[in-house]
Design a protein that fits this description.
single chain; Rossmann fold; binds adenosine-5'-triphosphate; transport; ABC-type amino acid transporter activity; P-loop_NTPase; ATP hydrolysis activity; ATP binding
């Protein structure tokens, strides 16, 4: 049984307390403390291998932690917990590789979970799917297959598909890394609009312009630890930790 939490954690979308994770004998997350408020936009950045993907993957239990506490939307998560389907319904995730079903049309990719998991009638599922395809500005692609779309369009389908489940929280794991430069902007524009609509978001990205413009808070990770967190105005102007200074030096020049 998932444990329902009360008290102050109810006001947070995500609370991590001393979170630790190992891959075999390699400790990838070291005592991570993080609280993300409902409606907050977080950008997670840091060097390759610093544990950013692992951190976000723990939030929807694609990875499980071994030590510490993790509470998402008021529910404490742990290995072997029940209620994973509900968790993943409430936590949308967009990956670097779009992970669309190639044999299904755009519309069917979007309606699949609504029909199968939510048991909605097909016409109602299609209505929700079309609303969200409009939101990501590709309603005219509804009857195409993923291979007939550009990378940027495929990623926007992936975002629409996640939005169909009306998530309370969206996770993005380097959503533009597999895209050509001209397509990056169209995906970032959609993400920016979601942020303006008040969606709680945790984004792993190297897009520092997006981070500067959209994030409420930047989380900087190194070697499995959060070593600096600050508002973008502070982080980009005056990063404190030498590793953050070095990282920004490389990213911005
Ligand atoms: N399934 C796995 N098994 C073993 N080691 C893993 C696994 N996944 C990731 N790692 C290792 O854990 C460390 C952190 O990986 P993670 O993908 O979380 O980092 P990251 O900061 O997202 O990196 P990148 O920016 O390159 O995507 C890396 O050293 C990686 O090689």
């Amino acid at each position: 049984m998932a444990v329902q939490m009360n008290s102050s954690s109810d006001n947070a979308a995500v609370t991590m307390e001393q979170l630790c994770k190992w891959y075999g004998s390699f400790q990838v997350l070291h005592n991570v403390d993080l609280s993300v408020a409902v409606g907050e936009r977080i950008v997670v950045c840091g060097p390759s291998g610093s544990g950013k993907s692992t951190l976000v993957r723990c939030i929807n239990q694609l990875e499980t932690h071994e030590k510490g506490r993790l509470i998402v939307n008021g529910v404490e998560l742990y290995k072997g917990m029940r209620g994973l389907a509900e968790l993943r319904r409430d936590v949308g995730m967009v990956f670097q590789q779009f992970n669309l079903f190639p044999h299904l049309t755009v519309l069917d990719n979007c309606t699949l979970a609504l029909v199968r998991a939510r048991k909605l009638p097909r016409d109602q599922a299609e209505e929700i799917a079309m609303e969200n395809l409009k939101k990501v500005r590709i309603p005219e692609q509804a009857h195409k297959f993923p291979t007939q779309l550009s990378g940027g369009q495929q990623q926007r389908v992936a975002i629409a598909r996640a939005l169909c489940m009306k998530p309370k929280l969206m996770l993005f794991d380097e959503p533009t890394s597999a895209l050509d430069p001209e397509m990056i902007k169209e995906v970032l524009d959609v993400m920016t609009e979601l942020a303006r609509d008040g969606m709680t978001m945790i984004c792993v990205t190297h897009e520092m312009g997006f981070a500067r413009e959209v994030a409420d808070r930047i989380i900087f990770m190194d070697s499995g630890r959060i070593i600096e967190q600050a508002a973008p105005s502070k982080f980009f102007k005056n990063p404190e930790h030498p590793r953050a200074q070095q990282f920004l030096g490389q990213m911005l020049h």
